[in-house]
Amino acid sequence: MKAIRNMHANTLAALRRTFVAALSLFCVLTAACRTVEAQTRTGDAVAPDLSIGADRFPNDDAIILRWEQSWTLDADGAVHRRDHQWLKLLNSRPIREVADPRIAYNMERDKVVIHTAQTYLPDGTTMPVPDYSFNIAAPNDVAGWPQYAPWQEKIVSFSGLQDNATIDLDYEVITEPGVYPWIDADLRLEQEYPTVERVVCVTVPTGTTLLHRIDNLDSAADSPEATEADGSTTYRWVFRNLKGSPHEPQSPPWQRHLGRLQFTTCPSESAFVGKIVDPVMRAAEPSERIAAFASDAIADEREARAQADKVAAKIRETFNVVNSPKTWRSLQCRPADTVLESNYGSPLEAAALCAAALRSLGRNVGIDAAFDDDAWNSEVPTDSALDAVVVRLATDDGPLYVHPTRGVLDNPGSWSAHTLIGMATGGDLQRTNLRSRGQGDESRINITGTITLSPEGKPSGELRMHLTGGFFDPADLRTADAQEKLAKQLAGRVLKDASVESHSIAELSANQLRATVKISPDKPLTAIDKQYVVSLGDEPVFLSKYPLPLAEPTRETPVDLRGPFSEQVDISIRIPDGWNVAIAPTPLDRVEGDWGLMQQTVKQDGETIRLSRTIKVTTRVLSPGAFAAIRDGINMLRADASHALFVSPT
Amino acid sequence: MKLKIAARWLALPIAVLAASVALAGAPKPATPDQIVEMIKAAGNAEDYGNAATVYVLDEADVYVQTSGLATTESCQVEKILTDEGVKATSVLRLDYDPDTYRVTIKSVCIHRKNGDIEDVPLSRMVTQPTRQWLIFWGGQQYVLPIPRLQVGDALEVRVSKIGFNIAYLGEQPDSAGGAAELQPPMPGHWHETTLFQGHTPIIRKRYSVHMPKDMPVQYEVCNGTLKTSLWFDGDRHVYTFEADDVPAIDGEPHMVSLDDCATKVVMATVPDWQTKSRWFWQANKDQFKADAAVQAKVDELIKGLKTDKEKIAALNHWVADNIRYYGTSRGPREGFTLHRGIETYCDRGGVCKDKAGMLITMLRAAGIEAYPALTMAGSRVEDIPADQFNHTVTVVRNQDGTFDIYDPTWIPLSREMWSSREALQGLVYGTPEGQTLTLSPYYPPDYNLLSATAESRIDTEGKLATTINMHLKGYPGTYLRRNIERYSKPQQRGAIEAAVNIAPTAKLDDVSFTDPYDYSQDARIRLGVSAARFAGGSGDLWALHMPLMTHPLESWLIPDLAYPLKEDSRKYGMRMRATRLVQYDEKLTLPDGWTFAHVPETQTFDSPSASLKYSTEVEGNTLTYHFEFAVKKHLIPPEDYAQYKKAIEMMNDIAGDWVFCRRGATAENRGQQASRKDAANQAG
Fold this sequence. Notes:
The structure holds 2 protein chains of 2 kinds.
Chain A: E1 2-4, H1 9-18, H2 20-34, E2 62-73, E3 79-89, H3 95-98, E4 102-106, E5 110-120, E6 126-128, E7 134-137, E8 151-156, E9 166-175, E10 184-188, E11 195-205, E12 211-215, E13 225-229, E14 232-242, H4 254-257, E15 260-264, H5 269-283, H6 288-298, H7 304-318, E16 320-321, H8 325-328, H9 336-342, E17 344-345, H10 347-360, E18 365-372, E19 386-393, E20 400-403, E21 407-408, E22 418-423, E23 429-434, E24 443-453, E25 459-468, H11 480-494, E26 500-508, E27 512-519, E28 527-528, E29 531-535, E30 559-560, E31 565-574, E32 580-583, E33 588-593, E34 596-605, E35 608-617, E36 621-622, H12 624-638, H13 640-643, E37 644-648
Chain B: H1 2-10, H2 14-22, H3 32-40, E1 53-64, E2 70-80, H4 83-88, E3 91-96, E4 101-111, E5 117-119, E6 126-129, E7 135-136, E8 140-145, E9 154-163, E10 168-169, E11 182-183, E12 191-195, E13 202-212, E14 218-222, E15 227-233, E16 236-246, E17 264-268, H5 273-284, H6 292-302, H7 308-322, E18 324-325, E19 327-328, H8 341-347, E20 349-350, H9 352-365, E21 370-375, E22 391-397, E23 403-406, E24 426-429, E25 438-439, E26 449-458, E27 464-472, H10 474-485, H11 489-499, E28 506-513, E29 523-531, E30 536-538, E31 541-544, H12 554-557, E32 574-575, E33 580-589, E34 594-598, E35 603-606, E36 610-619, E37 622-631, E38 635-636, H13 638-656, E39 659-663, H14 667-683
Parallel strand pairs in B: 1-13, 7-19, 18-20, 26-33
Antiparallel strand pairs in B: 1-2, 2-9, 3-8, 4-5, 4-9, 6-8, 10-11, 12-17, 13-16, 14-17, 15-16, 21-22, 21-24, 22-23, 24-25, 26-27, 27-29, 28-29, 30-31, 31-39, 32-38, 33-37, 34-39, 35-36, 36-37
Helix pairs in contact in B: 7-9, 8-9
């Protein structure tokens, strides 16, 4: 991983000497490109080798032969974003996904230029996209909301698609000055299909800071080529032979394991955060309407945390949050009163409404931006990492963080890993890491108990449960019904046909849950041919909270977990005197690796059968090899033979 | 709920009732005072099963012109009952299609709970394109922000609409949005289908059609009853349909279309289906001329084929697999005009009508008499000859004058020529002489066959090794082809193993299958599967399930047989994907010295919608059984549901039952086996 900050003119001079030859070639190509369209700022519009195909990529459905992207920031603040891609179809499978690309733009401030839209047919001839195949639609994520009506999508439907045809689309979106405070991007370099060549260019007025960073690519150039011309500096990255990365369930977020390029002209993290939180804070002014809304939401509640939860609940239940970057990318925020009157708004506006409502109740609030930990990089802040804006509520016990629709955020909580950043008094950044439950320390689930079978084949007894970390969330267990439901679910996962008579909660805190479940002897177990079937669940208990993609036999990417965990189940079954154990669950010999261990033992001691199962996974990310070992072991434990006990009277 | 509503109506002020009396003659729109009183009397969420909103009033007056053009003046009053209703009513959205119909929002006002009435300024309305997916025909939407509502408020919306549900412009629309240039697709004719029930409760709904008195109209009320009346009103006849206190339809899983269960009125001025048929042919007959490129492709595809059936199959499959589904508009006549075949050929794409047109063009180029046909996928076509269609297909007139139907839209990666999912579906063929409404064929269960045989062995460690051969016809064959082809070649084997479903430990040792694109034969797949710990136990007793009864590849081939059937009864029909016959024949062999101590017993069951046969035979260490499950109807009516559910439960019980195996056969075991075999033979 390399991070390069503040690349200014001095550095460029050195780079210029290094890349004279490349620069000359680049200038020639760029100049040639500019003849295509006045707005064009870059693009090596040389058609790639169209003969590359299934011979070289026999296992792929399509190939990106070349993909050129450029961002240009003019001195007046106008932004040009150009995208030129040649995608070759090796069979018909990808057609639905790639045949009708959509170009999103805001008709009030963007201009769209289609430079090229054509299909290279297998015989080498080209078929331009006909006029009737350029159409306009509303973007799905903001359609139907008046404030975002200027957002549209130009849909380009390609003709003549067939095996070995190549889609060639070159378009540019030009945004007028003053819309975006900076240009930035967070690019996934390794796509679903392999890429023969990918070129990324960023052109900014010379002297403008450009922060950039590449991750997860062993072979990538550490630094871009940099060239100066006409008062602008262009940074250029070229990537070749990027592998395809098909989707697999439960892979880590792409930012953690696939080639990634980030850049921004935003000079610092504090500038970035300030641009987000300042307009929200300004918009969060209470009004008569907001006071009435808040008062209605909280009813008679006086306690700060409960008030915040009730305000958030009212927003969640009656207000529409339009959660799309299109709604906030320009970082505009309407006044809270206007937002409430319209009854819909962006995540920023929802936060402003929440803050204004709490203010109207006399509460002291601030605003924090919430970034996804997998996407956020303080060295190169990009807006794609922004996940929400939350309200920081001051209380005598310290700050509470209030998500506009989720309510007060527990730490750790069910909202997965986020970093909250706000501005403290004096302008310093104030940072809070929100961990998801089970993200750090090992989460445990222990279930122990003794079940006694009556001579009529009716089970009774107690199961004791101890859960920590990611195996429960106190926020979900605030009602007796919710607690009972969880207790019954867990009992059913170790004694499938159990009838729960009662349950008691010995401890329910942020750290642990201790409960006891009493099994009712009200109905006999299923009997087949004089054999009573005691089904000790269908599968290990942990899978309800830590699911694994157990069906897929092969794996290329790692498997992402919420965190390390362990399961310990110890169940004793007592059968009546004189009864026999016809079939006992099959043990699992200890399986161990750098990922952890698993084991199941089954012992009979007179009329008592003891099943003990231990599963321990010590890492948050499982390599494909580790997952293969775990998959085999867990699937063994899921087999009928591993959890079925048959007993019978003599 | 009914009683509460009745009580509320009794509570209406006498003045309102008196006003109703004064309305003798054709029913008239509600007055503002009546609307206010209706809102007051409308009750709250508890009266409507906690519905988010209720339509206090939903009324429309349709003025039909002799040209067939119609203007609809409507008024809807929706009362907000819950927070969910507040959230859902933040914006008023009205779709329109510049090429077929226009809408004008005439007024919107809010009746506040305290009695205040606020006008919503229409100046804040914006226009934007609609969302579009696969069909890019330029739909538009008016979007009007509504000031935040409170529970107890009501929204009154008055809209004027001109055009047709399916109507078309003769010329490009003028800038003023006037109606002068609007032309119905069938000049001089009008039709409409109006539902009187939906997912929101309705207190009062009225629908009045003002017809020129010399313009006859046919109508039928379907799926229920309505209050109907016909009044003379000067030079018009006013047909009115009314309903009060209509509850919301509570959806049921996999239920039939709303059109097939909600009370509705179907109206049309077209005299008969033959007229519709002739019109459809006339409107499209010039679209099917081939050029040299199309002719060359046809010649290439049918080269060496001798019979028309072979040629039709080759061309149908080529269109299905090579013309991708997407829609672009050619302007005013788009909705009912098939694109020219030569254009679709260049685009290598089109919607259903364009794919049908491509096939017609190619068939005609091959010397085969082909026509377009209208159909309704997913719901019934009522007998009234109103336009009730959403799909276009191809028909071929045979030399004996009969017709065969072909659907290139629904048969990509299918050996079928017409999808068996479209059984008993209303069709109108478009021909020069005109055809009446007809139905697509019924497909008996064995048309959609999943036949599997398995040779299975358990080794001394309890590990299963089985070889399964599947022969698939019709729908299951289609879905094997499509599911395999969903994955790229390197992923296919893993995808099959993930779907195989026999046991958590199942591993695919070998697999082979027919080429998904080979339509010369039924689809077949051979699976070699092993599964450790398939038999549980130790010592002298094992327990296991019958391997083939785990339904290998169930999620691919027969997912609808796994629909959860929680309800004991249903109000509405259930739509299966198709009829079906599932046949399993398995031979399960234990290691030497082991015998079967318990196996599921022979069972049979028959009912109008489903049947089951299961018989078993034990011979030494070998169990053989035959299982058959038939789904006889693809639409299971409510009255058949309980027995269908029973059949499914019997199947699941057989699959879930334990088979016990014992080492060392005793004389008693052998005697039990023999008697079981006799019983099975007798049952068989």
